Recover the amino acids of this structure.
């Protein structure tokens, strides 16, 4: 019952903030509620506080004891939803699929796939030496095992 009530409150809070979207939501056996959010323009501390209040202020601790954690998806967290890929177009990604691991710039994201571009050194078609070529690959979401933004400092 607690999960359904929290889910309803969470959905209402997210409807009021269309730039935010849900990444993960769990309610543990000890009534530990964990919500992980992401946003089209990132997630601020204020966003987390607002969603937390929208849930907490509408639950009665006298009725059921709980703990609540509302957090943003970490910068190094794997991406799970197409909407996360869309917001990261232009950034460097590391993508692991069933048969390979690719690093490249995310140039496109649709509902079904992403497109990566990168430069690679390959042998010249004729003669000795190597030449730099531009590579491009479209990867279906169903083939992605893990995808992360590569953070550069």
């Amino acid at each position: 019952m607690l999960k359904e009530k929290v889910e309803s409150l969470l959905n209402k809070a997210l409807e009021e903030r269309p730039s935010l979207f849900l990444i993960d939501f769990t309610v543990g056996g000890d009534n530990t509620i964990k919500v992980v959010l992401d946003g089209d323009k990132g997630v601020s501390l204020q966003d987390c506080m607002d969603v937390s209040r929208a849930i907490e202020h509408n639950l009665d601790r006298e009725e059921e004891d709980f703990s609540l954690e509302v957090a943003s998806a970490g910068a190094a967290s794997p991406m799970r939803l197409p909407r996360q890929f869309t917001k990261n177009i232009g950034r460097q990604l590391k993508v692991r699929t069933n048969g390979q691991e690719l690093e490249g710039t995310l140039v496109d994201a649709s509902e079904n796939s992403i497109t990566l571009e990168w430069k690679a050194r390959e042998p010249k078609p004729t003669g000795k030496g190597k030449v730099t070529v531009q590579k491009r690959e479209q990867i279906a979401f169903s083939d992605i095992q893990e995808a992360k933004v590569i953070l550069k400092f």
